[in-house]
Amino acid sequence: MTSRIIALTAAVVVGVASLCVAGLVTLSGAATACSLVTTPSGTTGRYDTEQVHHAQVIVTVGVQHGIPVRGQVIAVATALQESGLRNLGHLGENNDHDSLGLFQQRPSQGWGTPAQIMDPEYAAGAFFGRLVTVAGWQSLPLTIAAQTVQRSAYPDAYAKWEGDATALVGLVSGPPNASGGPGEQCISVGGWMTPIQGTLVSGFRTDSRPGHDGVDIAAAKGTPIHAAASGLVIRVVCNAHLRDGSPYSCDVDGHPVTVLGCGWYVELRHPDSTVTRYCHMLRRPFVHVGQQVAVGQVIGQVGSSGHSSGPHLHLETHTGEPATESNAVDPIGFFASRGIDPTAT
User: Fold this and answer.
1) Which of 11-25, 85-99, 153-167, 276-290 comes out lowest in average pLDDT?
2) 168 and 57, same structural domain?
3) Overall number of domains in the chain
4) CA–CA distance from 60 to each of 32, 41, 87, 313, 326 (Å)?
5) Collapsing DSSP states into helix, strand and coil, what is residue 257?
6) Which is deepest, 10, 154, 188, 192, by most CB within 10 Å?
């Protein structure tokens, strides 16, 4: 395997004081606890929510496999070097052979299928599976242990991440019974979170609203809307008009009778090719088309633009792109399969 040195980005400003990252979980992906991550200082302050989450996944899988802390540090340091703790898909001409995922593992070298390697849990387990076969790995210098597993073209590059990896492992190794308190949100082991905390006021394609392709979650005007998972911004649209087709502003409240459309909305495409849509935002969203966003990043604010009777988030989930009526699925089940209850308060 060859390595790509990825420049680490500055921490994403998410507009909230704290988030929860999923704590120790079973390998089924259902979260059993959260460990609180406040805005970190020092070394770990350079990493955003997505990166800290991926460190958490690696540590969680390590614990499940009985890997001691030294092995967890080696794995996190390796992922820092290979991907910057980001679950990288195929980058076209910039791709290093067929390398994928957190550890830049290659299907052609027997690490698994592309789909498997793009699953952070699987990738971490595959790394640990090979690490424990290295004779005396616990007493080896980190860079030698990592290199023996990875066989990188840059064998000395791993050592520089040991300090950061040690700090990150310490940060995410919270007590197994820790839990998020009121107002805190959790990221599942699969890398998903609920975009807002609020009250479910309308379901998916109910008898009274068979054409309602999402769910409505009520929250106060101005409540931050978070990206439900990392992904690419594919649409930022003002969609509001009167019933006669006349244009209507998305920068003012809409109306449930006279105004149609989703108001200000954003669509994100996620690494598994699913799409999430966030409607009725208060004002122009905080992101732009082509921007990569991290899980938990604030993309806009709850509003009542378009076809709306009051402040709420209309949330849609789609199995493919473009997001259409035919590929819309119930967000409750969609999130539940990813270890998240989007209506939890």
Assistant:
1) 11-25
2) yes
3) 2
4) 12, 22, 16, 32, 37
5) coil
6) 192
Closest CA to 29 of 158, 182, 192: 192
SS3 335: helix
Is there a single domain that holds both residue 204 and residue 310? yes
Angle between helices 120-131 and 69-83 (to 10 degrees): 120
The DSSP bridge pattern shows strands 186-187 and 18-22 to be parallel
Angstrom distance (rounded) from CA 264 to CA 106: 40
CATH code assigned at 37: 1.10.530
**Residues 138 and 215 occupy one common structural domain:** no
Say what the pLDDT of residue 69 is. 83
Following DSSP, what letter does each residue of 59-110 receive, concatenated? HHHHHHTT--HHHHHHHHHHHHHHHSS------GGGS-TT-BTTTTB-GGGT
- Amino acid making up residue 313: L
Per residue in 200-228, pLDDT tens? 999 999 999 999 999 999 999 999 998 89
Query: Which residues span the domain enclosing 84?
Result: 18-172
Using DSSP, state whether 53 is helix, strand or coil.
Answer: helix
Residue 275 φ/ψ, nearest 5 degrees:
-130, 135
The verdict on residue 4 lying in a domain is no
DSSP 127: H
pLDDT in tens, 275-316: 999 999 999 999 999 888 877 778 999 999 999 999 999 999
Contact 299, 333 (CB under 8 A): no
Cα Rg of the chain, angstroms: 21
φ, ψ for residue 296, nearest 5 deg:
90, -10
C-alpha 58/C-alpha 79 separation (Å) is: 9
pLDDT, average across residues 125-152: 91
Residues 121 and 206 both lie in one domain: no
Report yes or no: 258 and 242 within 8 Å, Cβ to Cβ: yes
Unique residue bearing structure tokens 């669509």 = 267
**Which of 142, 172, 202 marks a domain boundary?**
172
For residue 158, tell me if it sits in a domain.
Answer: yes
Q: Tokens 């809307």 map to which residue?
A: 225
DSSP 259-274: EEEEEEEEEEE-TTS-
